Amino acid sequence: MPVSSDSIDVANRILLYFILATYSYLLFKTLFENYNKQVTVVTEALETTIEQVVASFIVAIEAKDQYTFGHSERVSLYAVEMAKTLREYEDDNKLKTLRLSGLMHDVGKINIPESILTKPDKLTPEEYELIKTHTVVGARMVEKITGLGPLKNGVLYHHERWDGRGYPAELQGEEIPLDARILAIADAFDAMTSSRAYRDALSFHEAFNRLKEARGTQFDPKLIDCLESVRFQWLQIYNESQFSLDDLEKLTDFL
User: Fold this and answer.
1) For residues 121 and 232, which has the higher predicted lDDT (pLDDT)?
2) What is residue 23's predicted lDDT score, i.e. its pLDDT?
3) What is the three-class DSSP state of 219?
4) Is the dihedral of CA 49, 233, 183, 248 positive or negative?
5) For the chain, which domains are there?
6) Of 29, 64, 96, 109, which is the active-site residue?
């Protein structure tokens, strides 16, 4: 049976539509892949810039007070290890925000005179009030820097207390953002295990026990209950930091 010209025309149209559809799909796929590559490049560049900005701030903070050498990094490490035990931080982006918040939690101290930060004696009430402003100043700083806005809660509220007696807003219980509650514990622990101009450091185990004693008063009781599950990881961070501090002391003596 001969094939009509109409049948050939229909077949050609179907073939043409198929070719156009295939071409459109391949074109869209190529454009989409290129777009994703560009987005990835821009995102990676932004993340690198953010990390560099954070690193610069840490250097500036620690240059003002040798006793805080490595403090921000350790607080960040302690906080992340605790957060890994919580389902709220299964999202890597939330974990990253907490990590950067730990690194930047004391950024507002750039505004505090070095003479107060390194004062070997007890602070006067006026000096202590000035120290307390570092949370608000730091929050304003990160809020104004592109990419650092999400760090605000951790920076602003890491000195709040579970019982409502902290600062700057006297928040209580779960009014305090979770990032800040975790950072409060990590910050206090590293402060206790680090030497200061006015006191010697506590041992790892003594500081660990003091955190437990402050359960439900200074710190979130549920988070304190997580401590035992991160004891080994925290001890590793602590031990590694002692080597770093020894190296710093040798360098300081040499200079």
Assistant:
1) 232
2) 46
3) strand
4) negative
5) 5-254 (1.10.3210.10)
6) 109
Q: Which amino acid is at 57?
A: F
Q: Which amino acid is at 224?
A: I
Do residues 153 and 135 make contact, with C-beta atoms less than 8 angstroms apart? no
The structure's pTM equals 0.78
Most confident region among 46-55, 78-87, 120-129 by mean pLDDT: 78-87
| Lookup: tokens for 242 | 């002692």
- List Cβ neighbours of 223 (8 Å cut-off, separation of 6 or more): 82, 181, 182, 185
Chain centroid, CA 181 distance in Å: 13
Indicate the SS3 state at residue 176. Answer: coil
Known active-site residue 119: no
Long-range contacts from 45-53, C-beta under 8 angstroms, 24+ separation: 46/147, 47/147, 49/147, 50/100, 50/147, 50/148, 53/145, 53/147, 53/148
Sorted by sequence, the CB contacts under 8 Å of residue 225 that are 6+ apart come out as 215
pLDDT in tens, 130-157: 999 999 999 999 998 888 999 999 999 9
List beta partners, residue 196. Answer: 199
The average pLDDT across 213-229 equals 97
Helix (H) or strand (E) segment spanning residue 76: helix 71-83
User: Secondary structure of the chain: what % helix, strand, coil (to 5)?
Assistant: 75, 0, 25
8 A C-beta contact, residue 70 and residue 245: yes
Per-residue tokens: 107 = 């950024």
Exposed / middle / buried, residue 15 (Cβ in 10 Å: 0-12, 13-18, 19+): exposed
